[in-house]
Design brief:
- The complex is a heterodimer of chains A (343) and B (610).
- Chain A is built from 15 helices and 2 strands.
- Chain A is mostly helical.
- Chain A has 2 domains: 117 residues, no CATH class; 196 residues, MetI-like fold.
- In chain A, strands 1-2 form a two-stranded antiparallel ribbon.
- The termini of chain A are close together.
- Chain B has 20 helices and 20 strands.
- Chain B is an alpha+beta fold and 610 residues long.
- In chain B, the strands form 6 sheets. A 7-stranded mixed sheet of chain B has the order 7-8-9-1-10-18-11, sandwiched between helices. A 4-stranded antiparallel sheet of chain B has the order 13-17-12-16. In chain B, strands 4-6-5 form a 3-stranded antiparallel sheet, with helices on one face.
- Chain B has 3 domains: 121 residues, Periplasmic binding protein-like II (D-Maltodextrin-Binding Protein, domain 2); 194 residues, Dipeptide-binding Protein, Domain 1 (Dipeptide-binding Protein, domain 1, Alpha-Beta Complex), CATH 3.90.76.10; 242 residues, Dipeptide-binding Protein, domain 3, CATH 3.10.105.10.
- Chains A and B meet through helix 2, helix 3, helix 5, helix 7 and helix 8 of A and helix 1, strand 7, strand 8, helix 9 and helix 16 of B.
């Protein structure tokens, strides 16, 4: 297994160079005056601006290959450049926004995966009976709803009507403490930092702000997992060893939990891996609606503003994330299914 | 119920319950403004030139003068003790020497006391740093009669063009410093400005409005890495990237609020009250400026009481007018106009999507299509100004009388302007290009920046009317991403485009230069044809207008400029819009000035439930 992991890691630099080079080649089709739009964001900002001066000042007139070489040189020094759209260095932007995304992903992944598997199991167990139809309809509605619309509905219900779960990552009173007081930022994840600072009020406030995005993400993604789990379960339910287990007189719960569900989880694990990756890559729409400043919103804003340093930085970061997450999923396979051998 | 479900239920209950325990529905000492137009670019007054940056700087810094009650015609002292005038002897007869007595006992947020040397250092440091695209031209122009430090270096015997300032000889740099330093001196408790040319609005530039007049604390600046005041070293701080400038994300002013933090990753700025403020402490203790793109989120925050004021676009006002507990103040005057520009010399090669064949053959337009005054007049007569004002701008504004907003002085309100008159438009189309346009027709692409629906509608009004005049006329309204539009603007490739101009300072000159001078912001985007015409028709008058100190003489000059602009149909100013504010009904003492960058002045407002 170690050889497998080492070999996959060896591919990492090649993947990263490949993806960043690809982005750079695409960006090189843009003229310096298109790139300067990162500095002049609207027609109203043209006031007394010399476009030529800005192009020269920020080196946008250099040939693309020179800019790429400079970028790689800086990268080797740990500097991903300055992002105009984020108003900070790219490394700082990623390090500040990614913990928010991890936090949302960590809290979402449990209800998303377990809820999806639970619904899928119920559907399969009650195949073609009312409970199957109800759970499938419930989940498919979620899958069909545009995330923007559903997010807004959630925000209106839980914030506008009930006043329970506000947008943002923290309330303003909590922000004042976290940003200007003695509160120590250990991880950038509000819930974890709140516990480490022994601030339960901030912990609960952070949870309140996470609740609505989690509910939204869970409902939107349950249908996907339900379908995978259900079909996989139905396939396993018809296997000989399941029939044998039942014939042995094992209770239905034991059969389902121990013999069926466990074996049906392999495709679910594959899908869950890509779901985690999707969550870690940021969920732009949910972040936008709930004003949850994660890495998805950061990347989307950077791309909209042609902020090429940020685009390159986040591409590099996503590349790294993709390779490492896929590696983890492959290794997990071997643990779930002893028949799988990593070679 | 199983134990695990009980745990989940209890946890959920705690989270929900915490909403009522920790949520603060009404806090009279905290003011929250939620904008949606973007984050500040920098907090350094030498570089800040966008509204979002000005919004923050407004709360933290004071300037030498202010508009009394926000009235643009009433100047009052702020960090100065008197407004200089010829009458009170603080301004010389020729307007070239202006003496400003500095208020004593004013404290900066770090506890330092304001001195005249702080004032001198502020403007010297800001001018010498002159970041590209910044507002320092407003000081360099009156004090040195140039627009950039690069030009000062040239005046000092340096090269006309240089890539890096390190290439410039040290002696030249020293001479350049001397030129700048000689413009401002400290005399006892006064600061004396020596202008290179009479510049009537100079005091307006030093007045609270934009961010460029903010006064810095020399000692604190140096301690935080700014220029140390040494004449030999200033070039190390010249034209730095915004993020490398000292006040990029920190501040120490004399204003009513201290900057606690600019949380860039959270798109918010937090302020705390400065209790030693020289005019007395504010009623608000903590203030937030947040930036949230999504209108629905902002609206819900306002309704929930988490925001006291929010940004709402003009075309979105219908969504807030009828809301309970929400106040919408409309019709607030602002010094702004929106203008449709014509490019006089359009490159045809590689620009087929907008100019078609590049010839006057019915399938395109030639490069000099809009160089013909009859074409421009025909377009101007084709636009339905009233319909736009009433239907799109919802009546919030006025139809212009030329390129200078009517709220400013020296605007001839009796100037005859274009109206929606298709008969006259037809008449001019028939005259254009010796009748060829009418005979052969044309096809042209006219551009707005994607997402700007008001501009799209304006162009559609134009399209509808022009196409109704002659079936051979084809106008295509084109949506273009801003990056592409900027690239095309630079090469004057857009036959028609729309841009608005928001004043820097309330003087006619601030509109005359960008719209009419050959070196102005827009001439370059309208092609060589307009540059040549501007040199011939406008430059001398624009230059004379700013140098004239007699108001009557200025009026005469600007009336003439306005007349020429309209007669020659250089562009089509089509609306001067008013603005609005949306806030909770518990906001009291809302003050407004057309000069302010800030949507809300946190010093004047307070909160009180009825």
């Amino acid at each position: 297994m170690l050889t497998f992991i080492a070999r996959r890691l060896l591919f990492l630099p090649i993947v990263l160079i490949g993806v960043t080079l690809m982005v750079f080649v695409v960006m090189s089709f843009l003229t310096p005056y298109q790139l300067v739009s990162a500095y002049i964001k609207s027609p109203e900002e043209l006031k007394n601006q010399s476009l030529d001066d800005l192009v020269r000042k920020y080196g946008l007139d250099q040939p693309a290959h020179i800019r790429y070489i400079n970028w790689v040189k800086n990268l080797l020094k740990g500097d991903l450049g300055y992002s105009k759209s984020a108003n900070m260095r790219v490394t700082e932007a990623i390090s500040k926004r990614f913990p928010a995304t991890i936090e949302l992903a960590l809290f979402s992944i449990i209800p998303v995966i377990f809820g999806g598997i639970w619904l899928g199991t119920i559907s399969a167990k009650h195949y073609n009976r009312p409970l199957d139809h109800i759970s499938r309809t419930f989940a498919i509605i979620g899958w069909s709803l545009p995330d923007f619309v559903f997010g807004l509905i959630m925000l209106m219900i839980f914030y506008g009507v009930l006043g329970w779960f506000p947008p943002g990552r923290l309330s303003m009173w909590a922000d004042t403490i976290v940003l200007t007081g003695d509160f120590v930022r250990y991880t950038g994840m509000n819930t974890v930092d709140a516990i480490l600072n022994w601030r339960w009020d901030i912990f609960l406030d952070a949870l309140r702000h996470l609740a609505a995005p989690i509910i939204t993400l869970s409902y939107l993604w349950w249908a996907y997992l339900l379908r995978i789990t259900r079909s996989s379960m139905l396939e396993v339910l018809n296997k000989d060893y399941v029939r044998t287990a039942r014939a042995k007189g094992l209770g239905e719960k034991v059969v389902v939990n121990r013999h069926v569900r466990r074996n049906a989880l392999i495709p679910v694990a594959t899908v869950s891996g890509s779901m985690v990756l999707g969550l870690l890559g940021g969920v732009v729409i949910v972040e936008t609606v709930f004003d949850y400043k994660g890495i998805g919103l950061l990347t989307a804003t950077g791309a909209q503003q042609l902020d090429y340093t940020l685009i390159l930085g986040t591409t590099l970061f996503y590349g790294l994330l993709l390779v490492v997450t896929n590696l983890i999923v492959d290794v997990l396979y071997a643990f779930i299914d002893p028949r799988v051998r990593l070679e | 119920m199983k134990a695990k479900y009980q745990v989940v239920f209890v946890l959920l209950l705690i989270v929900v319950m915490s909403a009522s325990v920790f949520g603060a529905p009404f806090d009279p000492e905290t003011f929250v403004y939620v904008g949606g137009a973007g984050a500040p670019q920098t907090l350094d007054p030498a570089a800040a030139y966008d509204t979002a940056s000005g919004e923050v700087i407004h709360q933290v810094y004071d300037t030498l003068f202010e508009y009394v009650d926000g009235d643009l015609e009433q100047l009052g002292p702020m960090l100065a003790t008197e407004v200089p005038s010829v009458e009170n002897g603080l301004m010389s007869e020729d307007g070239l020497t202006i003496r400003v007595p500095i208020r004593q006992g004013v404290k900066f947020h770090n506890g330092a006391v304001l001195t005249p040397e702080d004032v001198r250092y502020t403007f010297l440091r800001n001018m010498l740093s002159d970041p590209a695209g910044g507002p320092m031209w407003m000081f360099l122009e009156p004090l040195l009669d140039v627009q950039t430090m690069a030009k000062v270096i040239e005046m000092a015997g340096g090269p006309a063009d240089f890539a890096e300032i390190d290439e410039v000889d040290a002696e030249v740099l020293r001479r350049a410093y001397d030129l700048v330093a000689a413009t401002i001196e400290v005399d006892g408790n006064d600061v004396v400005f020596h202008l290179a040319t009479p510049y009537p609005p100079f005091i307006n530039i030093l007045t609270k409005g934009g961010s460029w007049g903010a006064i810095l604390n020399k000692e604190w600046m140096i301690a935080n890495g700014a220029w140390d005041g040494d004449p030999e070293t200033w070039s190390q701080w010249y034209d730095l990237a915004l993020e490398d400038m000292t006040c990029y994300d920190k501040a120490n002013g004399t204003g009513p609020f201290k900057l606690e933090t600019w949380d860039k990753s959270g798109n918010q700025t937090i302020f705390s009250r400065f209790d030693e403020y020289w005019q007395g402490p504010a009623k608000i203790k903590t203030a937030f400026i947040k930036d949230i793109k999504e209108l629905s989120t902002r609206l819900l925050m306002l309704q929930a009481g988490d925001a006291d004021g929010i940004y709402v676009g003009k075309d979105e006002l219908n969504q807030v007018r009828s809301l309970d507990n929400v106040v919408v103040i409309e019709g607030l005057p602002q010094v702004v106009n929106t203008v449709l520009f014509y490019s006089f010399t359009i490159p045809t090669e590689g620009n087929e999507d907008l100019v078609g064949s590049g010839k006057l053959d019915g399938n395109g337009i030639p490069s000099d299509f809009f160089a013909d005054v009859d074409i421009r007049k025909a377009f101007n007569y084709s636009f339905d100004y009233e319909a736009y004002l009433n239907e799109v701008a919802e009546g919030a504004g006025v139809i212009p009388k030329g390129p200078i907003p009517q709220i400013l002085p020296f605007v001839n309100l009796d100037q005859e302007y274009y109206t929606h008159d298709l008969a006259k438009a037809e008449e001019h189309f028939k005259k254009a290009f010796g009748g060829e346009v009418w005979e052969k027709g044309f096809e042209v692409g006219i551009v707005y920046n994607t997402g700007n629906d008001q501009r799209k509608t304006a162009l559609e009004i134009l399209e509808y009317n022009i196409e109704s005049i002659n079936p051979k006329f084809k106008v295509n309204v084109v949506s273009m991403e801003w990056a592409t539009m900027l690239d095309k603007l630079r090469s004057s490739s857009l036959p028609i485009f729309i841009i608005g101009w928001l004043m820097d300072f309330p003087d006619t000159h601030n509109f005359a230069v960008p719209y009419m001078h050959s070196d102005g912001t827009f001439a370059g985007y309208c092609g060589q044809g307009l540059i040549d015409l501007a040199k011939e028709e406008f430059d001398d008058l624009v230059n004379a207008g700013i140098k004239a100190t007699d108001p009557e003489e200025r009026e005469k000059i600007y009336f003439e400029l306005q007349k020429r602009y309209v007669d020659l149909a250089i562009g089509m100013p089509y609306v001067e819009e008013t603005t609005h504010r949306v806030m909770r009904d518990w906001v009291r003492n809302f003050h407004y000035s057309p000069a302010w960058s800030a949507n809300f002045d946190f010093y004047s407002v307070y909160k009180e439930v009825k």
